[in-house]
Each structure stands twice: as C-alpha cells, then as structure tokens.
Amino acid sequence: MCYLLFLQRNMKKYYFYYTIGRKVLMALSGFFLMVFLLQHLAINLLSVISPNLFNEVSHFMGTNKLIQFILQPILISGLIFHLIMGAILDYKNRNSRNTNYSYNKNDNSTWVSRNMIITGTMVFLFICLHFYDFWIPEINTKFVNGDWSGLHHGEFKYFSELQHKFQDTWRVLLYSISFIFLSLHLLHGFQSSFQSVGIRNSSTTPLLKKLSIYYAILVPAGFVFIAIYHYIDQLII
C-alpha cells in the first residue's frame, strides 16, 4: 500500500513537471515565432519605402545558404512544433475540466484565452495560403528548376511578385481578416508565453499587458497596411 501511494505521488509529480515542460516549450517556440514576425514585417515594410532595397534584401534572404539550409528548416520546424503542441495542450486542457471548456466562467478567462485553438487554426490556414502564394513557388524555382538568380526579364522579381499578389480585392480582404485572427491570438499568447517561463508576476504583469497589446495590434496592423498600400497603389497607377 505504501509503495502504491509513493508511486501515485511520484506519477502526479511527474505529470505536473511534464505538463509544465510542454508549456515552457510552447512558450519558447512562441517567442521564436514572434521574433520572426518582427523580422518579416521589417523586410516587408521596405517594399513601401524602397522597391529596390526590398528586392536586394529579399534576394539576400532568399539566396543566403545559412538562411535557406539552416534557419529556414528551423523556422518551419518551430512552426510545426508550435501548432502540434498547441493542439495537444488545448486537448489536455479541455479534458481536464468537468464542464465544457467554452462555458468556463473563470473571471480571468477571456474568449481569446478559451479559444486559442480557433484563432490558431485560422492563422494556420492563412500560413497555408501564404506558403501557396510565395514560399512554394520560390522553392520550386530554386530547388526544382535550379534558378537562384531571383531575376525575371533581367530584373529582380520580388517586388513585382508582391504587388501582383495584392491586385486582387478578395485576397487583400482575406489577408486582412487573417491578421485580425493573428492579433487575437497574440493578445493572449504574448502574455501567456511570459507566464509559462516564469517571468510574469505581480510587478511585471502591467508592463507585459501593455507590451502584448502594442505587439498584438501594431505587428498585424503593419502587415495589413502593406497589403492595402500595394492594392491602392496599383489602383492609382
């Protein structure tokens, strides 16, 4: 009997640390993806400031061997890990409650925090579209056709390809709606990541709340601005 009690206590302790470990890994992958978002936004904003500079930076990113063969696989692996771990944690959270997850009335629980799987799924669907629009054609050109020049009719193609994608009204609307879901996902995910790694406490919570709001609104808004800017720019021309 004593052995069984000892085993039960240790199993509970193991499960506790195992659960915490998964949340920490989820948070770390979230940090990694949030840093990538900032970097991606910074490069895309160059398309508004200087098409030539955007082409040069895009060509460097697209042909640099370190980025293509090391950082890009790490990024994709991190994204896949974040999606899978998010689904697992959501499943575990739902099963750990006696009442339906969507009817949880905890005062600290918001709609966003209760439905991260929904906002995350919408973001994932957008990523699939984004891969279809930009990443897959680029991979086909470089790794299937063997063309690493980045040229089309003697000029860099990156800026013209970006503008071409934002000629369609429905595509711009779809991109904008997708970034609204990303904003909702980040509103909770930003704070939750810091809490999972033990940074969030009574003294840091107010600052983290402000930072999460700024990040969750300004970063997606930046991507929406880029899409709308190129759409309007082509209408004027």
Question: Could you describe the 3D structure shown?
Answer:
It is a single chain. The protein has helices at residues 2-49, 51-63, 65-95, 111-114, 116-144, 158-165, 169-196, 205-236; strands at residues 151-152, 155-156. With 237 residues, it is an all-alpha fold. It has one domain (2-99, 109-236): 3 helical TM bundles of succinate and fumarate reductases (Up-down Bundle). Helix 1 runs parallel beside helix 8 (205-236), helix 3 runs antiparallel to helix 5 and helix 5 (116-144) crosses helix 7. The protein is globular. The model is unreliable at 3-8, 13-17 and 98-107 (pLDDT under 50).
How would the blueprint of this fold be written?
Elements: H1 2-49, H2 51-63, H3 65-95, H4 111-114, H5 116-144, E1 151-152, E2 155-156, H6 158-165, H7 169-196, H8 205-236
Antiparallel strand pairs: 1-2
What is the average per-residue confidence, as pLDDT, rounded to a whole number? 86
Please, how many domains? 1
Radius of gyration: 21 Å
Give the biggest beta sheet.
2 strands, antiparallel
Determine the structural class based on helices, strands and strand pairing. Answer: mainly alpha
Order of helices and strands: HHHHHEEHHH
Spans of at least 5 consecutive residues with low confidence: 3-8, 13-17, 98-107
CATH fold-level assignment: 3 helical TM bundles of succinate and fumarate reductases
Q: Briefly, what CATH class? A: Mainly Alpha
**Shape from CA axes?**
globular
Major sheet strand order: 1-2
What proportion of the residues is helical, as a percent range? over 70%
Number of discrete helical segments: 8
Approximately how much beta-strand content do the residues carry?
A: under 5%
Shape-level CATH architecture: Up-down Bundle
- Tally of DSSP β-strands: 2
Q: Termini separation (Å)? A: 81 Å
